[in-house]
Fold this protein.
Amino acid sequence: MSPSFDPTTLHTGLFIDGVWRKAASAATFTVENPATHEVIAEVADGGLDDALDAIAAAGSAQATWATSTPRERADILRRAFDLVNANTDRLAAIITAEMGKPLAEAKGEVAYGAEFLRWFSEEATRIGGDHTTSVDGKTRILITKEPVGTCVLVTPWNFPLTMGIRKIAPAIAAGCTMVFKPSELTPLTSLALVDIFQQAGLPDGVLNVVTTSNAADVVEPWMSSGIARKVSFTGSTAVGKILLRHAAENVMRSSMELGGNAPFIVLADADVERAVDGAMIAKMRNMGEACTAANRFFVHRSLAEEFGEKFAKRMAELQVGNGALEGTEVGPLIEQAGRDKVEELVADALAKGARVLTGATRPQGPGYFYTPTVLTDVPLDAKLMTTEIFGPVAAITPFDSEDEAVHLANDTDWGLVGYVFTENVDTAMRFSSALEVGMVGLNTGLVSNPVAPFGGVKQSGLGREGSKIGIDEYLEYKYTAMAR
């Protein structure tokens, strides 16, 4: 039997200073199931007054929370890890209901997100420093790390549990308080996560959450408050640039995990079966609605036909449907606008000469579904090549030389991740060095891992999440000079 949840047990209010409450205006907005168009819940629609209350609560709690012990913070995170795992079925069911991904993937997200809690519970006790002596021998220098202060956290809808945890966990470990705005498309998972942190013993005021249908009404007051010292955002490059401008006005620390346009390169010596396996993961994880999703498939001309046929066969065999139903492998896209964008990109590519190997159709009936699609001979001037697709569409373009493949892969404003398939270790390392990205998958379609520094270069963002580096995003360095 598929896991489920009782909608009447969901938290749907704001969480400020340890209290669940309605919006000051009493306004709400609806959360829809993208597979059925069913309204799941009415959620508090926070505004300016709520935002100001939340940032004030976080600011008031910061001094005390900063003096909490590393073990206290670690124990809270470890309890949260245990609670997330104990609630896997319920959390997965909520994710599937409001976001659409199949339950198997939703459970995978819960397990993945939980690992960040365990990782940062361990990192909380390892915040170190340094000690050195000035070159003239007259001064001892003690280097310490301190919490950066109150943080503004803004997350997207595509991994509603993991994206929240990946920001909240290191902030807790470092001793920072937070104001948190989850996506209006998937707030229920975030609110369930907040409840878990409360159960785990997180003190009042440390984590404050305002759901809203108008992000600017909430996030801009936080950024301009003078209380917040850092912003961490995951989402589009366009919105990231707006937040960076706001951050500049108050000289705030910034972490930005922005858009991607990942190249997937299949070299002449690649194992085609292995490359297809990798392509299925890199393209279809989360229905292609991931910043790490492979967008542009550059395949050596000698393998393009074989790779395309095998890839298209695998894509055509995927079962599309409601993610809550057993056997479903591909759920709906998140909303109508997302499906419209995918259809427009495919139509543009076909008009410019691309060919359909499979898909390129909209299933009948309710839900924002789009069939897994493989296009080949996609020209370089197609919009698919310059736009983050965020859907189950793979665009194949043949190439002839390795230099051409590197040029095509780097010919983009983004630089989050790249995938390379080759059986030659020297070629693999050469491409890893040449690609202008923050992460490289060599003969694998999956790069996300809590122990690895997740992030990109160019317009794909600033800073890193996860790994031992992730906690440094929430810490400031201080040194004390002591006369000898």
